[in-house]
Design brief:
It is built from 3 helices and 5 strands; from the N terminus they run E-E-E-E-E-H-H-H. It is α+β, with helices and mostly antiparallel strands and 93 residues long. The strands form 2 sheets. It has a 3-stranded antiparallel β-sheet with strand order 4-3-5. It has a two-stranded antiparallel sheet with strand order 1-2. The longest helix is centred in the last third of the chain and has 14 residues.
Length: 93
């Protein structure tokens, strides 16, 4: 009898709450080669990615603590944090 292999679920850590979760349940924030920060809803954009829980609490904690400055090693302006919060809010409805 042939055994069925279980697929390995890719796990990522939320940069805000530091919990390990399945990659599919997290939002990816990408730092593009052009220097922009964007929410990567499909998970396919080029650039360095950081993952965050798909919850308002984690998004707000990341913005308040300016976590992406440390994660990406660049100075992230308040406008970018506002953009991330607006995009998150608009796509949650």
């Amino acid at each position: 009898m042939e055994q069925i292999k279980d697929k390995k679920v890719p796990m990522r850590m939320c940069v805000s709450c530091r919990q390990m979760m399945p990659k599919s349940s997290l939002l990816r924030i990408v730092h593009t080669p052009e220097g922009d920060l964007k929410i990567d809803f499909k998970g396919k954009q080029n650039g360095r990615g950081a993952y965050i829980c798909d919850s308002e609490a984690c998004v707000n904690k990341a913005i308040k603590g300016r976590i992406f400055n440390r994660v990406f090693g660049v100075e992230v302006s308040q406008e970018i944090y506002d953009y991330i919060k607006d995009e998150y809010s608009n796509n949650r409805r």
